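re: ur question from earlier - yeah i can do the single chain one, its not a big deal. heres the input i used so u can compare w yours
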Amino acid sequence: MRNRSLGFIVALAVFGLDQLVKWLVTGPLGVNHVGDQLYLLPFFQFTYTQNNGISLGLLNATTETGRWMLVALTSAIAIGVAVWMGRETKRLDQAALGMVLGGALGNILDRTLHGYVVDFADLHFGSWRPFLIFNVGDAAISIAVVILLLRAFVSRKDQSKGSGPEERHEHA
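and the output i got, formated as tokens:
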């Protein structure tokens, strides 16, 4: 079990960073009303939004029932990720799952406290925005999903070449 704590440490760090940055943006920096903006760089600014949905604005919950259904759904997913993370033996996968869990917990807390998720990170190149406005937790989840997908493809490629763990063990 000693090696399985990495994911939970990463989850705690992502959750803490997500909440800290949200507090900084909405508190001391004063970007806390829909449409408020703080320009930081020509391609990045803080723009306050309230996300009633989940990733990419899907499953938009505009009622109290919808809100609590999203809390229940995302909590169930977070529990599933935590169980997977606790069983995972690969450290990179543990860390990636921790990023997913930490980001999900930050968004669950927002939705529980406010009824929506606080988003503010606005990356753009002129008028082109490759992403919707997001937060630290969203970024962690997105990066983690890319890591997990790449690891799955690399693992599958290694196994198809006969260099996976099963093949090495049989020839030893």
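Strands lie at 37-41, 44-51, 117-123. not sure if urs matches, ping me
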